């Protein structure tokens, strides 16, 4: 269904790929599953959304951990950038639409290289988790 996009996939993170719907975000936190690669946590949910892309993403940084807006904004920018450059990990493994929110859990600001590495680990954990969902009983 989404395979045409991957041949000419752009490394952008446009409006259509961003999670903005309050209803979807609410549903995501109520019904979603999560994976962690500290200091990042992804809450994800397989659901229909309005975008043509296989996934919509949002990022968040807690105000209680980073009081100053420029610090929060910088971390969100780093998270979006590291996702943008690695999103083919997700796109090449999805055949149904997903929405997810990536939150920064740490109390100290990490540098870009560390966030990039943790994002890679997080995206791979996500793929492993969604591929194992039907076989969970057989893995034990």
UniProtKB/TrEMBL annotation:
<protein>
    <recommendedName>
        <fullName>Ribonuclease P protein component</fullName>
        <ecNumber>3.1.26.5</ecNumber>
    </recommendedName>
</protein>
<keyword id="KW-0540">Nuclease</keyword>
<keyword id="KW-0694">RNA-binding</keyword>
<dbReference type="GO" id="GO:0001682">
    <property type="term" value="P:tRNA 5'-leader removal"/>
</dbReference>
<dbReference type="InterPro" id="IPR014721">
    <property type="entry name" value="Ribsml_uS5_D2-typ_fold_subgr"/>
</dbReference>
<keyword id="KW-0255">Endonuclease</keyword>
<dbReference type="InterPro" id="IPR020568">
    <property type="entry name" value="Ribosomal_Su5_D2-typ_SF"/>
</dbReference>
<dbReference type="GO" id="GO:0000049">
    <property type="term" value="F:tRNA binding"/>
</dbReference>
<keyword id="KW-0819">tRNA processing</keyword>
<dbReference type="GO" id="GO:0030677">
    <property type="term" value="C:ribonuclease P complex"/>
</dbReference>
<comment type="similarity">
    <text>Belongs to the RnpA family.</text>
</comment>
<dbReference type="InterPro" id="IPR000100">
    <property type="entry name" value="RNase_P"/>
</dbReference>
<dbReference type="GO" id="GO:0042781">
    <property type="term" value="F:3'-tRNA processing endoribonuclease activity"/>
</dbReference>
<comment type="function">
    <text>RNaseP catalyzes the removal of the 5'-leader sequence from pre-tRNA to produce the mature 5'-terminus. It can also cleave other RNA substrates such as 4.5S RNA. The protein component plays an auxiliary but essential role in vivo by binding to the 5'-leader sequence and broadening the substrate specificity of the ribozyme.</text>
</comment>
<dbReference type="Pfam" id="PF00825">
    <property type="entry name" value="Ribonuclease_P"/>
</dbReference>
<comment type="subunit">
    <text>Consists of a catalytic RNA component (M1 or rnpB) and a protein subunit.</text>
</comment>
<keyword id="KW-0378">Hydrolase</keyword>
<dbReference type="InterPro" id="IPR020539">
    <property type="entry name" value="RNase_P_CS"/>
</dbReference>
<dbReference type="GO" id="GO:0004526">
    <property type="term" value="F:ribonuclease P activity"/>
</dbReference>
């Amino acid at each position: 269904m989404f395979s045409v996009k991957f041949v000419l996939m752009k490394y952008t993170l446009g409006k259509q790929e961003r999670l903005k719907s309050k209803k979807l975000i609410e549903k995501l936190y109520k019904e979603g599953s999560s994976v962690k690669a500290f200091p990042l946590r992804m809450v994800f949910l397989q659901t229909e959304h309005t975008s043509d892309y296989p996934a919509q993403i949002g990022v968040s940084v807690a105000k209680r951990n980073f009081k100053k807006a420029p610090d929060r904004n910088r971390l969100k920018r780093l998270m979006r950038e590291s996702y943008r450059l690695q999103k083919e990990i997700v796109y090449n493994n999805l055949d149904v639409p997903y929405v997810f929110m990536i939150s920064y859990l740490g109390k100290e600001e990490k540098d870009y290289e560390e966030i990039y590495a943790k994002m890679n680990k997080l995206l791979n954990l996500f793929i492993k988790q969604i591929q194992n969902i039907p076989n969970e009983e057989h893995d034990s």
